[in-house]
Batch of 2 targets.
Target 1
Amino acid sequence: MKQFWRKIISGGCGPLDDPAEAPSVAAAFTAAVKADVYHESIVAEGGAGWALARRGLEKSLRIIWLAGRRPAATGPFKGPISQVRLPVGQAEILEVTPTAAAAAALRQALPWTAPQLVAGRPSIGLGDRLGLATPGHVRAVRGTGYVPMLAQQSIREMTRTRRSAQEVVDDATWGAFQAGWRDGFGADADHLKTPEDIDLCAAAGFTFFTIDPGDYVDNDAATASPDELSAKFEALPWPALETTAADTRRAYADVREDLAGETLAFDEVTLHRAGAKYGYAVAHTAEMYRHLVARLGEGNFELEVSVDETDTPTSPAEHYYVAKELARMGVRWVSLAPRFVGRFEKGVDYIGDLAELERTFVPHMAITERFGGYKISLHSGSDKFGVYAMAARHGGRRVHVKTAGTSYLEALRVIAEKEIRLFREILDFARCRYEADKASYLVSANLHRVPISCVLADWHLAPLLNQFDARQALHVTYGSVLAAEGGKRFREPLLAALKTHEEAYAQALEKHIGRHLAPFIGK
Ligand code: ZN
């Protein structure tokens, strides 16, 4: 404790210099605050010592300083102060309830608990629908060189989980603090469709914005005749695209790109098809980008473009068209999610022809290089264990795997092991809800293969989380589960159980997310 105390009062910052000191510091902290202190959270900053403590299921921030010398950095924090005598001297300890105001103050006091710009580093998207996954997510990425998106939620998920954008960011802040994660994280406001979505998420402190212009993609273009394509092309919103049909034809007439051995050229039908399919989407994305620039200022945010949730695959020519047009309009983006061939269904492995996926993945990567080396984002990217080795081989650190629901499934795995009755009820409820809830997701589970809980022995429950149909049924019904009876039925007992079994949940996530990263870090 002595060393750490000296560090605090000399205004030093950072965690314990000597890890061997951790047990004694934690013990002193724990004794002083009469609550368990998370070892990893202990840190010195601005003349104070900071830690996250837990008593029962309740957590609170504790800040300690030399008696009579309250540091300025602690000013915004409110709560009761108690006097304690530590082996190293008299101290004061402030107890702070983890409110939204406290989270905002914490991001100011300890900047690494705030989302950062991360696109320059290899990254992975780790959505957390329950707000309790961050410590496990941190364990999975520690030492890998990958920066996590610890806050990552789509508007759809926020609606279904009844969490505000602010809660999503705040949960990541508290989780990063608890886990002592000081290497930075991103906050991905996923699948934004309107300027209002942007405003909501920008106000909450998101730094990464995934624009989804999917509603503006014309999937009929995939099968339309040359005449129809020509008519669609002429009818594009040219003023919004800041060019003309004739100029666009001229701009593509001479395109000859070598994409990993194959030459990409645009005959008229190819250009018309790409334009007809994605022209409106390009215009909408540019409009969303301009809105972001006006709101946050160029360079203060990162942008992803995602068309993954559309009906027809994005061909390399179409990807090239989107990139070239966005670049011409001055849009700056850091990643793009094409709609790939085959099926990236929720919570399960890739369904489709891997060789065909690889044949298109290579030119997609080549196009990203041609336009500045942005990342390819693999949406519904969890559990695609058959794909990662190929993606890592061709894309390496420029592949961003985006996961979310899989961490909810890992939570259910813990429940299936530890809170058997609760899991049985969730399973039966999910069976009832699946047909209605699957509407907005790409899934193909057959309910006949999801057993009703009463026919299962206890030890059959957790293995259900390895079964295709049960995974999907549980995956897409989270909104109904969490909302049932205003949260009383499942949400509250589920969150309480995960807090009780916090260590088991962290271990499950470390293992499961670790499997996603392993092929990318050469393991
Ligand atoms: Zn997506």
Target 2
Amino acid sequence: MNDAANKANAEQRPMFDHVALIGLGLIGSSLAHVMRRENLAGHIAGATRSEPTLKRAGELGLCDSYHLDAAEAVKGADLVFLNVPVGAMGPVAERIAGALKPGAILTDVGSVKGSVIRDVSPHVPEGVHFIPGHPIAGTEQSGPDAGFAELFENRWCILTPLENTDEGALERLIAFWEATGAHVDTMAAEHHDLVLGITSHLPHLIAYNIVATAADLEDVTESEVIKYSAGGFRDFTRLAASDPVMWRDVFLNNREAVLELLGRFMEDLSALQRAIRWGEGEKLYELFKRSRRIRREIIEAGQDTPAPGFGRR
Ligand code: NAP
């Protein structure tokens, strides 16, 4: 075959023949959408735990086959995604282990990597390539209606290969993520958990906490908090509206990194408290100036919009 024929062939053939999505919430359904758009799978098999979610996924036409048993969904799959809360990864891996095809790539999208490796690895059969992953892309929405094909566009996906990860399988998974529009980085799981601890887990914890503090205030009514939320509070409420099961599991499973970062955070907060108490304006000004620079760098890196109010109309 000449180059042009090769190219035409490559354009028609999906990247993977058979992909299984275990979990069809925000991330699973977004994967389904982008796989269709980019012709990444010849057949998409979807599995959820509950019947209503599976039924809704069917109404949305996310997959080609639908299963309440995850083991059924992974039969014959070349690529298997675990898109369930971090605490459910181990039991799901145990359930599907016997049905995985030799040579298949098994990956996940969990927000914590150390615990997923700990919980999933013992169940991975010989000949199956387990490559943990985490797309740094999300919204506060969950469920099969929340997904959209552009979710991963220009976002980073971190893969945390294991010591014996097969290079060919890793390259195929990287190609998959790049085809979704994502950029791919690889790093050690422990480092991932520390980095995401500060960029994602701690901010969510602070958001959950500030919303709880506001709700519990005696001298400011809840209706005042809501009415005047545009002062900054509402930006925390977006984070604090995220799925409670997912975030419970994140904190239970990234305990060490979060506790370490929380210690640092509380020290820094005490320094701020002290600066306010003693009227140290210069200290406050310097710190706030530095934060502004970081915001600018996030925008320059294409990870947010410079539009006022995050582009809200
Ligand atoms: P989601 O929208 O809440 O969907 C979760 C899916 O997992 C649903 O299909 C649900 O099925 C299934 N599920 C829940 N508990 C389960 C259990 N115990 N056993 C088997 N299946 C179960 O969640 P998501 O936002 O897509 O998150 C999925 C994964 O992606 C999580 O590990 C999360 O850490 C990670 N992640 C999330 C984000 C984000 O911003 N949301 C970003 C990056 C990575 P039923 O509806 O039938 O229960």
